[in-house]
Amino acid sequence: MKVVCAGGGPAGLYLAILLKRQNPSHDITVHERNREGSTYGWGVTYWHSLLDRLQEHDPDSARAIADASVRWSDGVAHVRGLSTRHHGDEGFGIGRHRLLGLLADRARALGVRLEYESELTEPPAGADLVVAADGVHSALRARHADAFGTEISAGRNHYIWLGTTKVFDAFTFAFTETAHGWIWAYGYGYGDGHSTCVVECDPQTFTGLGLDRADVAEGLTLLEKLFADVLDGHPLIGRPGAGWLTFRTLTNRTWHHGNVVLLGDAAHTTHYSIGAGTTLALEDAMCLADALHTHAGLPEALAAYERRRMSELLSAQSAARYSARWYENLPRYINLPPHRMFALLGQRHSPLLPYVPPQVHYGLDKAAGQLEALRRFKRWLGPRVAGALHARSAPRRG
Questions:
Q1: Residues 197-218 as b or e (16 or more Cβ within 10 Å = b)
Q2: How far apart, in whole angstroms, are the C-alpha atoms of residue 348 and residue 363?
């Protein structure tokens, strides 16, 4: 099979690796519009479940990724000069640049052609399969946006991706109160003496602090002052040309059209606050490779891939929506004692949380941790309450 992939991100590179492992005679070329070694972003996160799946699909790349990752098992929240630390599941951080380098090396070793500074804007002739793994702004998807049924919705809060030389020893949350409202940061280490630091605030705080008018240097200076307690004198580092954004949730009615199939952010996006973007992209690649291996016909394989991944993504997409809503409604939780606020921060994916008073939810969650029957009741009740209230608030069609 001749496969042409647009996009040299994690999804495109990993799919190329898996297809070459399945059948070395596949002719696979990956086109990446940027030059080799240049990439956006800082570090990415993942959890042990992904590492287990990588090990199942390609032990060589799994081992290289694990060796290049930093690990943590604690979460820390800082609010009004108070801190609370919780022990949790083991998490991993790896620099995006490092991850792409490892996957590119592995793909080349297997015989995949990598073409950098080469952008595909239309499906090339002669390819059996064309993979659009070229991100949220996918040129291949945009050519047939109506066929894919692409929809994009913008979030409310503003955010910016930054780096810092402060190496966090835990996944760190910092909430700072200003005269114009709250602003907060998520920080996590990823190796090479650096951490990622994502800063977020609502529109009123954004304009009140003047971040909409500040140049890059002024904005970084202000943020360094606001988060001085957690940065310990370390600077924040911006990326040239990168500024404040509002998150765009992208969905598609279908993920394939003819011999073109969508992968990763070209197919779907989930809010960054659940830290799952890279994981979901790699899982897309695993699923598509499995479908192509299992089904003899391309239409059947692409349909099976779409069905399975759309189904598997439902829980992550739900978690992302509730997570984004939690931060958009931060005043509802921020005045709780720090340990309770942090506990509900960890429960922000719950569909029940927006509809139950925070203190009640905290007590229910604490009790559920001790009683299996109550834990099952909570899992049963949450989706039903959320669904009923959503249906009640939805506009009626007459």
A1: bbbbbbeebbebbebeeeeeee
A2: 15
What is the per-residue pLDDT for 175? 96
Task: Name the token pair of 192.
Answer: 């090479």
The Cα 119–Cα 137 span in angstroms is 12
Terminal-residue alpha carbon distance, the chain: 52
Residue 295's identity, in one-letter code, is H
62-66, 90-94, 239-243, 278-282: least confidently modelled range: 239-243
How many residues make up the chain in this entry?
398
CB atoms closer than 10 angstroms to residue 60: 16
Which residues face 74 on adjacent strands? 87
Asked if the model's pLDDT at residue 62 lies above 90, the reply is: yes
Given this model, what pLDDT does residue 379 score? Answer: 56
CB 344 within 8 A of CB 311: no
Which residues are registered as beta bridge partners of 175?
79, 184
Torsion over CA: 201, 202, 205, 209 (sign): positive
pLDDT tier at 365, thresholds 50, 70, 90: confident
Using the structure block, give the residue that is written with the tokens 């606001």: 226
Query: Could you read off the pLDDT of 105-142 as tens digits, one per residue?
Result: 999 999 999 999 999 989 999 999 999 999 999 999 99
pLDDT at site 377: 52
Give residue 372's pLDDT: 55
Distance from C-alpha of 220 to C-alpha of 231, rounded to nearest angstrom: 12
Dihedral of alpha carbons 104, 108, 112, 114, sign: positive
